[in-house]
Amino acid sequence: MERGKRMDENEKVNVPENTQEEAAQPQETPDNDKGENKTPLTKEQIASDLTEILESALITIFVIIMVFCYILHPVNIIGHSMVPTLNTNYDQDQNNCDRIFMTTVYGSLKYGDIVVVNNDKNYLLDDSGIPYVPEGISPLNECIIKRVIAVGGQTIDIRDGQVIVDGEVLSEPYINEGSSNNDMGAFTGQYPITIPEGYYFVMGDNRNHSTDSRDSKVGLVSDEQVYGKAVVRYAPIQDFKILLDSYKG
To answer: pTM for the complete prediction?
Structure first.
């Protein structure tokens, strides 16, 4: 958008001395310039003005549709798995839940990103570290929201109530008070595991009440299962929060 040209602080407008008084006095408008001789708008001019207004309105609507179809999507958060980052005051009976915008346009996912996932498959690892979908263990078959803990190529271990990625214990200021990082069976006896490229290990912030990659019903999440990345919590408005760096606490 073009900005109006600002007058330089040192720029001056000089008024000749002999015309300063006249310049300060408004001039009377001759009778024949008071509007009596204004040419009325023609039908063509009116049609042109209406066309311009309609074009502007359509462009605005188009941009809004593109933004909300391809860039930002509103999402209602159900459940307690991301407390305290999301849904601290969740009440299912009163339909009291946080609402966020997620984006479907993003680069590579990284540690700390909050993602919305289509849990239509639950990938586990065989003895060679190859992902597979187990028989007899059904996925949740619903959309879930979790935090990325490890990405493809990283090694993760869960032991003694700690999450260890690439040999370093994670400092996790975002998890709920009293949360534990207990193994939930998905990779029991296999830790530490190396995450295959194109897959993610995800966990909820409320570890005691989160079905996530530790559970066989979720397992690893593939690129194709990620709907989008959480950007901002916009409701309740008093709890507005940017979520892109929420892992920093």
So the answer is: 0.74
